[in-house]
Amino acid sequence: MRKARIKSETGLYHVCIRGVNRQDIFFDDYDKSQFLNYLKKYSKKYNVLIHSYSLLNNHVHLEIEDKNDCLSIFMQCLCSIYARYFNFKYDRVGHLFQERFASQIIKTNEQFLTVLRYILQNSYKAGISTSFDYKWSSYSAYRKQNPLVITVTALGNFADSSQLYRFLNTKNYDECIDISLTRAAREKFYIEKIKRLLKSKTPYFEAGISKEKLLQKLKILKNNSIPVSVISRITGLSRYIVALA
What DSSP state is assigned to residue 97? Predict the structure, then answer.
């Protein structure tokens, strides 16, 4: 039986969602833009405040405030509508996200700030961005308006935004929800290689592909030194199917 999710007394959570088998959930900037549009829509619908966010290749970090005890339905709607968009765009079927989102309750103001900094430094520490000012995070929200992000809570802890940014840029050993990002940068090479070998815009196989054709394409990937575990993780196919080729 699935363990019940612990409710936060403050309403504050650090939430993570990631692709099934750690596969990418964003292939271009438009995908990320669409996700933020859905995030804006459903956060407004369910009265969920967004304090920070960061969109990486294969997962998303959110720091949210659940005003009406709607965390589960909010995340379910957000993930469902984005998965529907993604599957239609890339002609794929099946689950996009890991079955259950990860969440960590935030109990204190100190913990709130730690999570904030952790999320906004995440892209840099993962090697996705060369600076903390990552385009697909809410890092810049304290310099220029971002209608999606609530900034007053974080700013209330500092004299001005410059002091807040000094805090956000401080080197640290913060530990929050960890979903192992180091693989993402390493697999970016394999994603591009798979697309090139399959002569495709994505590393996925088209819906309805015959078993014979699927095995032929898998054999091409394996013959070009792409490990079974990597093929499985990126394409979403089981290791058993990949090993058959």
Answer: B
Three-state secondary structure string covering 153-222: HHHCCCCCHHHHHHHHCCCCCCCCCCCCCHHHHHHHHHHHHHHHHHCCCCCCCCCCCCHHHHHHHHHHHH
Beta strands in the chain (DSSP E): 12-18, 48-55, 59-66, 102-105
Question: Taking the mean position of all CA atoms in its chain, how far away is CA 72?
Answer: 17
Angle among Cα 103, 104, 106 to the nearest 5 degrees reads 135
CA distances from 190 to 82, 97, 146, 231 (A): 24, 20, 34, 8
SS3 105: strand
Report pLDDT digits (tens) over 223-236: 776 778 888 888 88
pTM: 0.74
The neighbour count for residue 92, using CB atoms within 10 Å, is 17
Q: How far from chain centre, in Å, is Cα 188?
A: 15
User: Angle of helix 161-168 relative to helix 109-125, nearest 10 degrees?
Assistant: 60
